[in-house]
Amino acid sequence: MEERTEIESLGEFGLINHLTQNNETKQASTLLSIGDDAAVIDNFGRQTVISTDMLVEGIHFDLMYTPLKHLGYKAVAVNLSDLCAMMATPTHITLSIAFSNRFSVEALDEFYEGVYAACEKYNVDLIGGDTCSSQKGFIISVTAIGEVTNNQFVTRSGAQPNDLICVSGDLGAAYLGLQLLEREKRIYLENPNVQPNLQMKEHVIGRILKPEPRLDIVEWLQKNEIVPTSMMDISDGLSSDMLHICKQSNVGCIIYDEKLPIHNESKEMAMEFNLSGTSCALNGGEDYELLFTIPQSAYEKILTSEQISIIGYVTPIEEGAHLLTRQGNKHKLTAQGWNAF
Ligand code: ADP
Ligand code: MG
């Protein structure tokens, strides 16, 4: 009998690894291939940074509570976030879409309004793509292209013991926004006369519907001449993503529970849902904040940014990856993140 391995048994990263383990690069210009937030290609001394991502209806978004304009904006934003995670400046995107006849021209216009708004805001040109039909569901694929000079891109693999671990903005809000939208959807489906109550929830809802790539942080780091030793964007959740940095840098880490930046509105929402704010910050996905490590020598400079929190430090690999709680307990970091399979 022919062998059959379930995808589930490998998981997302196991599968990518399986499919690409024998992939060899042939071009001298391929500076960085599979395994980071983006790939890097050399162009006579300048470097082009490329990343691609897909958004699938029913998996990544629910059109019942996602306005198409926001979806268009988000499709671009999350791709630019991967370029920011390399410390690259975004310059171009291509955009491919597949949709059923359930969509009208007006609906697609609305989607493109969001796409163009993001291109405008981040100074990026839409230069191509592909359009086709799908039997069911809306599928979006964006490829984002950016640039760096003098090989100043930052990978996931350069963290060193004693480096400080930093994160931009606040964590867990997008996950809580999603919980809130899902709750209001259930209430609406049970009784369409009930209007959703989303007042005073702007932060968490904004974070799930309209994420922003942290180009401002990249520019701030450049201006202050801080060169992170490693960096990635948080799409699956801090725990899962920090473990990628640890694995690829061959290091361990200590993260302090009390240092995790959590917005007040997120704390309130977490209570309302009987969740722990810490666990939302660690495991909630889609924050699109930057997670990076810096040498201790940059400590004083980092303190001057109100947008960046120091949440822990890098350790030798033998010490493993841990969360230290307020009570002084040590918990192993685990990748609970999102797993589409
Ligand atoms: P991110 O969350 O930062 O977008 P992913 O976790 O999606 O990154 O992907 C990890 C790495 O695997 C990236 O380098 C990506 O380009 C690569 N990758 C993902 N899927 C495939 C695939 N089907 N074939 C080749 N490379 C892939
Ligand atoms: Mg990424």
Short description:
It contains 10 helices and 13 strands.
What would you say this structure looks like, in words?
- This protein is an alpha+beta fold and 341 residues long.
- It folds into two domains: 7-148, 60s Ribosomal Protein L30, Chain: A; 164-332, Phosphoribosyl-aminoimidazole Synthetase, Chain A, domain 2 (Alpha-Beta Complex).
- The chain has ten helices and 13 strands.
- The strands form two sheets. It has a seven-stranded mixed β-sheet, with helices on both faces.
- The protein is globular.
- Bound molecules: adenosine-5'-diphosphate and magnesium ion.
- Magnesium ion binds next to strand 8.
What key phrases describe this protein's structure?
single chain; 341 residues; alpha+beta; 60s Ribosomal Protein L30, Chain: A; Phosphoribosyl-aminoimidazole Synthetase, Chain A, domain 2; seven-stranded mixed β-sheet; binds adenosine-5'-diphosphate; binds magnesium ion
CATH architectural arrangement of the largest domain: Alpha-Beta Complex
Would you tell me the overall average pLDDT?
A: 95
Say which molecules are bound, naming each kind only once. Answer: adenosine-5'-diphosphate, magnesium ion
Low-confidence stretches: none
Number of beta-strand segments: 13
Mind summarizing the main beta sheet? Answer: 7 strands, mixed
Order of helices and strands: HEEEHEHEEEHHHEHEHHEHEEE
- Beta-strand portion reads 25-35%
Q: Termini, distance in Å?
A: 25 Å
Under CATH, the topology of the largest domain is which?
Answer: Phosphoribosyl-aminoimidazole Synthetase, Chain A, domain 2
Based on CA inertia axes, which overall geometry fits?
globular
State the CATH class of the largest domain.
Alpha Beta
Question: Helix- and strand-based class?
Answer: alpha+beta
Radius of gyration over C-alpha positions, nearest whole angstrom: 20 Å
Total separate domains: 2
- Proportion in helices: 25-40%
In what order do the strands lie side by side in the largest sheet?
Answer: 8-10-7-11-9-12-13
Looking at this structure, what is the CATH superfamily of the largest domain? PurM-like C-terminal domain
